[in-house]
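Human: For the file, kindly provide a plain-text protein record giving the amino acid sequence and the backbone structure tokens, at your earliest convenience.
Assistant:
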Amino acid sequence: MSPEAFVANIQQGFQDSANWIFQAIWVLAFVIIWIYGQRIQTTLMLKEVEGSLYRIKAMRDKGRQIAISTIREIGKPSEDPTPRVDRLLEHIDIEPVTLDPTGIIRRLEHIINVRDFRLKDEVRRMAPHADEVQLNNLTNVLETALALNQIYKIVRHYYLMGKKTLSFYIILQIQMLLPLIMRESEAFVNALKAFTLGQPIGDGAGALVAARLMYSKEKREISQDTVVSEVEIEGRKAYVIKAKGPGGNVGKPGEAIRQILEEKEGKVALIIIVDAAQKLEGERSGEVVEGVGVAIGGPGVDKYKVEEVATKYNVPLSAILIKEGIEDVISTMRKEIIDGVEEAIERIKRLIRENTREGDTVIIAGIGNTIGISQ
């Protein structure tokens, strides 16, 4: 055999061996992925959830610390408020029974009222030197810290349950929702600054519309933490309603509207409700849209009251919504939202001109947290 042929045979042997090794590695990798692929994916998903959990925990701790430091700074308590704050952060609201739906709105309203009273009473005990506006703002700070704590505990629950059981589907549930959860958590962290400083937030867009309409007019308290002014708009008599500011209040707009309609025996030509609304991706923050119905968020007590009394007296319901993202709703109010407020005021005037006659009576309710917005 010639030297060239010998070298060629050796090279061919190496090439055959390399091909066999690569083929064996490929088959082995295929078998491993086939058998352990889901477990590998589960481990990677757990790592992703774990990283997000650490970030949420840092946000939760920041919210707790801001709540404690703000209470110390504003309320000047004689004792350390930390134990009370920690107890409030574990507060739980138990919904009324729904097996018998009769009277559920009345029972839900009672639970909400008791919850609000207890929370404000606890804040008053921790911050004895705070005035009413500061008490409302401190309550908002604590509610934000409580929300962050609940988010952290829920994510931790699914993470630990998934880690304990290595169940792909348990981990998948929380992993799919993580982007939305993180976005909401970051919005709550941004809200802490607005609440501690008493700045207007995006959710107060409806309240700001009402404040602009009732500016310099006489106001009276019509229901708990809710004020009303009589304003002339386009030759019509308008009852403008908003939560009592500038503390962090949402008031009782449903009860206020009910009282006015009962006083007027239903002689109201139109009810216009202005509120912030969740925008869809691709929509512009501050965009204003119109609709029909009761634009009041929350547990539904105030919405139910307005629907009930408006149906009783057959009063038309119009809604004006200012679109906002989740990061806008509880963060310091941005210019786009303020521009939306100006447009909403013009739309209110147009609705009144087109749907009522001169001399008619209308009700305009600005819904939302009125923190930083004076009455």
In short: Residues 202-366 form a domain with the Rossmann fold fold (CATH 3.40.50.1470). The CA atoms of residues 272 and 364 lie 5 Å apart. The chain is about 60% helix and 15% strand.
